[in-house]
Amino acid sequence: MKTVPTLYEWAGGREAFERLTELFYGKVLQDELLEPVFRHMNPEHSKHVAHFIAEVFGGPKTYTEDDNGSHAGMVRHHLGKMLTEAQRRRWMALLLDSADEIGLASDPEFRSALVGYLEWGSRLAIMNSSTADNPISEGEPMPKWGWGETGGPYQP
Ligand code: HEM
């Protein structure tokens, strides 16, 4: 039986995600729509986001174990930020430009999974940014993303 690699393995592991977010947040700070919301980001921000996505994609538990993060903690960073759809679209565009520029795997299957995850996560980030109440409780597991489908319609 063939073993299916995780998205994390396919992408090239931790280093690939760290390169991706490093380039991306450099672009963000040059962008007129996004710079105002990221101006005061933590110096570890880029690494934390890389580790979050890597863990969701089946990599090691770096975000939850070494960075002291959690799913609820990640969501908390977005609460009350009042992010807009225009900012989300720019965020997506710059992240996908960065993926191309670092030469991240560009096969249709990987990119479909990557874009699917980023669309899902970025839309939730915008929704969460318009409330003060965290919809995710402490202790809830990290999301998991693989090669397949999301598995059902949106449930509020
Ligand atoms: C898949 C989508 C996303 C993921 C996985 C994600 C992940 C994260 C993580 C892990 C943090 C905490 C970083 C830290 O510990 O320093 C964070 C913070 C933040 N994110 Fe996101 N995010 C996503 C989408 C977005 C989008 C679309 C926006 C805005 C357009 C956004 C805006 C922010 C802001 C403003 C912060 C706080 C920055 C600060 O510390 O000042 N995020 N995000």
Automatic annotation (TrEMBL):
Respond yes or no to whether keyword Transport is given for this record: yes
What species does this protein belong to? Chitinophaga barathri
Which InterPro entries does its entry note? Globin-like_sf, Globin/Proto, Hemoglobin_trunc
Which UniProt keywords are present, listed alphabetically? Heme, Iron, Metal-binding, Transport
Pfam families to which the protein is assigned, alphabetical: Bac_globin
Q: Where does heme bind?
A: 48
Region: Disordered, residue numbers: 131-156
Q: What is this protein called?
A: Globin
Q: GO molecular function of the protein, one example?
A: heme binding
